[in-house]
């Protein structure tokens, strides 16, 4: 794999100076075109120490328009980062559409170095690489251009390079004992790197292996590959936009579900909606569960266990009221309620999961999503805000996201608050009558109501595809608010109890 | 996940009879349109025993035009199948473009049942599912429509169903002790199934979970989903064809590589082409290696170790002559030379790897590919016979293919026979002078020669991306035929020796 990057390729200063101005102009022009584009560029530098990862990133930073470029390098996770799932920091740093993001010591660094130092087995590394593949695939599916450069040096060239850096007083600080320690592990490093590249070089995220010994050569190669990649991605996305338009033409409308299937029971219609709780019993149970929640949360906080609660449900199903009953039992500094409405401009310039990743909280906190990432497979599906392919692949992306939350030791509960159409109508009418509640009722609520059937189909599919043992849905019969509130509280308490037990 | 498929959904006979004729006509019409399409349809039935997998496949077979439909079900591998990598039989059975293939007890059956019976761990099952994901992804990338139905029954419904089948003398034979044994393992089965679905439900190959208790309901759902899937895939492919055309427009041509990069040494130009072997030494070494090969092959055959040899190289580099020196040492019944020219009509209707999978031989045999799957990243790349995306993702697909060959215990060697452009010219001229060799020289050879630089770039990238520890490339300095032949023979012998040792 690396033989082809140990050939002693060189570009002279004269040669470089001859092509540099054109390359630079072309890159700036591409960057200008990028600003209008509907995708980000993600550049990853990996490879052997001393092969020029940093220098190349520096030069790119110098050449490109800095307003549209971000560079990120990672060390061991900070306290802040360690309290979230490992990919949190990478999600946070993703460049928005139109920008170029450069990543040094990226998501590949950990699995690779842990394998080199034998802290993890080959199978463990593979598992980690699968997660990386899913991450990059999800970004690429969303349109991102991912360009990965693996900078290579032969063992001899690496030694020579480290020596040279050491001998120059201006660069000697760059060479540490660790670098020499790594150099002695060269064979292990290259062996692990080969596996890493094999497992993660995909059509949509190819590793380009670059001979790193000569600075001008490697720079020319990287700049040229980058130019080509951006150029052809721009062309491709433009063509894809035409496809999307094509597929939206009226004659491409989907046929309606046959009546006999449309009228079938759904997971929602099978709920026993008569369940209720009378006033005294409600108060007793509410107090009991709130006391329990308060105590359990303190325990969880002590242990650094975070809680993520997801609330979905029909308009007027009582999400807000239920959330308030819950938060009342908590200390204001310990929870965040995240109301999810239409995404902001900043959020629209990112992958749809980005705005949820960013809200994952520090250890011991409770994050409550009032509507959530499930919007992708509910409202966005029903309203046609995203393509069929986009919401279909979202199930897998969501399962992967939630798996990472649970693997990080967080407690995750997902609630669908269900009311019948009749109950909804009654509540709408009540809202329109009570002055201080009128603001809660919008034209959109009435419009959504007309699409009850389509939403029900979507909810059914959502439960089918995303209710799993590690992250089950709790369907809440919410025609009676009291019953719903107690059921939610009890479910959260049970989950916290189980989560605390598991941590022991 | 399965709660939504235990709702007791039913379609009455009257309801079914009312929609059946239309559905049937629509499906036949779609099948007619499919015949002209550039993709196959792959339907997979999985799920709980008794949930109607077979019945649904039967009905589809009845309704569809049998000339354009194939159905495959798998039991434990036959002797023939066990001697090849596990996916060999699935590749062999893939439907060509324009046809529908239905798969029962498909590639999912093994990993699932082995997990249910605790023969493999969860991690092992995951590994197997990754291979499945790669397989399906590769087919989908090639255009295939993959529709997966998971037929579900609750534990109670399964019992009822098995009882009912048993009670009817006409269907009693369908229920075996094994079915009841499986029923007792219901929870294990459903647990493993959930993981399987979570890991393999992808945007391009979504699992549809179907409630299987009522025959007319499940049939209606499957037929309707199938209809929708084919319909929207036809639309999508049509739009994609337009994109491909768009991307091929003259203004979308790729810029040429800057001279300063084009003239860099490649992995080929770094070879020492002066290596030679004089006549006596050649004869001695040739005899020695042939004797060695003959003995080693007999040992390998005894142990059931197959050998796969890949020959690539420049026109007139001496592939044919080298192969003959090799096969002379073998028994005619033990080897096959597969000359790879332009694909046949049958082969063109399949994934490009299909025609190589089919040639993998029985245990102990030697299969020699005179040109190979590397055509995808060489001639097809250089001549623009496939899209950039197609050859870029081919590296990963090829690595995966070769990994399966090696994992099956086969010995794999890959040779690039290299000659210099000057030597090629001399050989071309010699060929055109010797009458009985003139047929070997075509206009295409001269045309290829003009693209030497582009081919060299492609060879370099090929070695970079596909020369790995498990399947390394051997670059052969072939300006002197004698030297090349002995080097190839020795490499094959060394590999066989290592392979035999590993098997012990």
UniProtKB/TrEMBL annotation, chains A, B:
SUPFAM superfamilies referenced in this protein's UniProt entry, alphabetically: P-loop containing nucleoside triphosphate hydrolases (SSF52540)
Domain Polyphosphate kinase-2-related: 18-234, 277-502
One Pfam family of this chain: PPK2
Domain of life: Bacteria
Gene3D superfamilies for this protein: P-loop containing nucleotide triphosphate hydrolases (3.40.50.300)
Name by which UniProt lists this protein: Polyphosphate:AMP phosphotransferase
Lineage, highest ranks first: Bacteria, Pseudomonadati, Pseudomonadota, Alphaproteobacteria, Rhodospirillales
This protein's encoding gene: pap
